[in-house]
Amino acid sequence: MGVVACGAIAGHVTGIAARNDWPVDVRALPPLLHNRPDRIAGRVEDAVTELRARYATVAVAFADCGTYGALDEVCARLRVPRLRGAHCYDVFAGASRLAELLAQEPGTYVLTDFLVRSFRRAVVTELGLDRFPQLREDYFRHYRRVVWLAQYPTGPLHTAARRAAEFLGLPLEVVTVGDQGLERELRALVTGWSADPGASARSPRPG
């Protein structure tokens, strides 16, 4: 089985597949595509097309990720499933838990392990804050806290998360979620999805 995965979660996908003995070949796309979500659907379509030359079954380990339905259109047309949810935060924490966190404080900036590790590159450099630090106030003035949805909260990651929050001038809260949510979603992809062309590309086969 071939899986086209967001680079931000590809390592988790590979690890989960290995510990479950799932014969999955993970094709990771660049995580910085999230800074240009208009490009995600096209890149996923190209990768699915390539993997189909080698595998009878292909799935997509992306949530919607800011494509506003463009990825769903590709998945429906190619008849491949994707992870449920609006973004990987939904996948890791669960949509209801994430909604509760945002209801408690709408001004919440969310991090995952990947974003903690890559904060300097993915946030500081990509937003130009290393060159124009005065932009930090423009970008983050409405945020009130950082919530780290921790998959594996090691000591070094705690340090990196604290530094990221300090850079933003915000308090840090750690919510340990593990990767069980992603594992449940991947199990649905691996064990079979509806082949009905009229069904949602996100809906697993009942039962």
Give your account of this protein's structure.
- With 207 residues, this protein is of the alpha/beta class.
- Helix content is 44%, strand content 14%.
- The protein has a 3-stranded parallel β-sheet with strand order 2-1-3, sandwiched between helices. Strands 4-5-6 form a 3-stranded parallel β-sheet.
- It is globular, with a radius of gyration of 18 Å.
- The two termini are 21 Å apart.
- Residues 193-207 have low confidence and may be disordered.
Contiguous uncertain segments of 5+ residues: 193-207
Based on CA atoms alone, the radius of gyration comes out at: 18 Å
Number of helices: 10
SS-based class: alpha/beta
- Percent helix, as a range, is 40-55%
Task: Write out the strand line-up for the largest beta sheet, numbering strands in chain order.
Answer: 2-1-3
How far is it from the N-terminal to the C-terminal residue, by CA? 21 Å
Overall spatial form: globular
- Sheet of most strands: 3 strands, parallel
Give the strand tally. Answer: 6
What does the average pLDDT come to?
90
Quote the beta fraction: 5-15%
